[in-house]
Amino acid sequence: MYERLPDGNRQIYAFQYAGDFCDLHQHVLPETNSEVAVAAVTDCSIGIIEHKDLEHLIAQYPSMSLALWRASMLEASIFRKRLLNVGRQPALQRVAHLLCEQLARREAVGINSATIPLTQTDLADAAGLSIVHINRTFQELRRLNILSEGRTINVLDRERLVGLAGFDGNYLNMPQLLSHWHVKIDHASTPAKPSPTMCRPTTPASRLCSEKWPGPARVQPSCATSSLPRAML
């Protein structure tokens, strides 16, 4: 999720993964901001749930509202940590922390890889750095043998990266990260009947990456598009 500024610069607010809503806030804050958008960086499936269908599910399964609230609070926790890093941390620690966060969140959805499918420009726009500054930061990380050479972001020494960043995943509520919600459903309840328009791509609606969505609001395969990316900005 990002916002484009009048001068053409971009600020990335969040990187999102399987199971994450990219605009859940619009369910309770319907005011739209035409400057805020989402973009995909790898292949994924996107599902659309209309707000009235989401409300129907919450009415049928009250614990669903707790899961959505928890997800919103975890997103807020990530935003607070990002604000702290951008406002008070030097560039090297700022970028190192951002890389650690992506590795941890990718592992939470079953992606156990030292390669992060982002570009230096993506990280610069998320960390509030210029292209020149992010390039110098990457050169230093390579000099420390933390990152490999080349255009791909590949972490060689994660332990050293964590130490450099001072990374502590407690703000992600480890081990239950943002994409691992646990919702207790009363199966004796009458399941909600989806409306005929459920998953129709109209507004108002909320969107989520549906590859590993564990809850009862999972988007049906016919509502997903396989040509869109897994990690979203």
TrEMBL record:
Statement: the UniProt record of this protein carries the keyword DNA-binding: yes
Ranges of residues in domain HTH crp-type: 89-159
GO biological processes: regulation of DNA-templated transcription
Keyword vocabulary terms for this entry: DNA-binding, Transcription, Transcription regulation
Organism: Reyranella soli
GO molecular function, one term: DNA binding
Classification via Pfam families: HTH_Crp_2
The protein's name in its UniProt record: HTH crp-type domain-containing protein
Organism placement in taxonomy: Bacteria, Pseudomonadati, Pseudomonadota, Alphaproteobacteria, Hyphomicrobiales
Stretches that traverse the bilayer: none
PROSITE patterns in the record: HTH_CRP_2 (PS51063)
Signal peptide limits: none
SMART domains on file: HTH_CRP
